[in-house]
Q: What sequence folds into this?
């Protein structure tokens, strides 16, 4: 038997306090890209009780994802939007989940992302990260945007930071560890960076805007 | 003097396109803010920085 909505809510409220939990519950976050960053960000936000997550990814779960992304071998071949939705519903049965299996482009970003308060950039490719960030800052300037760059390899955990670039734009990562340069992406360091993104998002929801 | 990624530089009169190139960034992998406002890509060549400006060039690397 899974707990009722009221029981889940009471447990979260006991942890976070009523004020904060109400803010988390009424927040909506669009997670753009459901790889090593996005799958971890979404899980952290769902566990904290964020009320509405919108998941966006065009890709399917591949065996090469399992080293760092929050999918299971029995989900290989499924769309990431569907596989992650299943897992998130197990974590947070009463969360509002919406999803879009689509590739984000400069053309569709303004309409697809406009309903959400906070946008999480969690793409893999550098030019796509830049495209999303530029597009959101230019066309959706009233949004809060949390992005990430530089989390490959086995460098120090302590070099991953969150920086506030401008009023509504934060950047997490070490800024330089490129997946093209060496070891590639490894579970723990990607998860650290994802946790930076998720924590900044929770801070924004709570009304705290400093990195 | 112009503040570029936190460092004061003698860059007044240069365009954003020049700053991106001189910094060794690939233009397709950056986002540039001038005084906390995004500079649209189409404006890189004719946006000129002046003394007192603050420029943040975010260069993205792959991985996620």
A:
């Amino acid at each position: 038997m899974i707990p009722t909505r009221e029981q889940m809510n009471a447990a979260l409220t006991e942890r976070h306090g009523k004020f904060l939990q109400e803010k988390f519950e009424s927040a909506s976050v669009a997670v753009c890209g459901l790889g090593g960053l996005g799958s971890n960000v979404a899980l952290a936000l769902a566990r904290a009780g964020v009320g509405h997550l919108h998941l966006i990814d065009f890709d399917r779960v591949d065996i090469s994802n399992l080293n760092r992304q929050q999918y299971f071998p029995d989900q290989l071949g499924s769309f990431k939007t569907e596989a992650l939705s299943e897992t998130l519903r197990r974590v947070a049965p009463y969360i509002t989940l919406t999803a879009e299996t689509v590739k984000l482009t400069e053309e569709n970003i303004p309409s697809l992302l406009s309903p959400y308060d906070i946008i999480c950039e969690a793409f893999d490719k550098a030019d796509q990260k830049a495209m999303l960030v530029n597009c959101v800052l230019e066309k959706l300037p009233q949004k809060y945007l949390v992005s990430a760059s530089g989390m490959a390899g086995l460098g120090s955990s302590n070099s991953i930071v969150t920086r506030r670039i401008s009023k509504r734009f934060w950047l997490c990562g070490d800024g330089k560890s490129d997946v093209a340069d060496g070891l590639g992406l490894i579970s723990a360091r990607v998860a650290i960076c994802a946790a930076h993104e998720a924590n900044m998002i929770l801070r924004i929801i709570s009304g705290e805007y400093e990195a | 003097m112009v503040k570029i990624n936190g460092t004061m530089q003698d860059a007044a009169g240069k365009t954003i396109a020049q700053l991106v190139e001189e910094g060794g960034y690939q233009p397709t992998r950056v986002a540039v803010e001038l005084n906390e406002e995004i500079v649209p890509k189409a404006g890189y060549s004719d946006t000129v920085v002046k003394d007192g400006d603050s420029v943040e060039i975010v260069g993205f690397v792959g991985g996620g």
Observations:
- The first helix of chain A runs from residue 5 to 16.
- Chain A is about 40% helix and 15% strand.
- Chain A has one domain: 5-206.
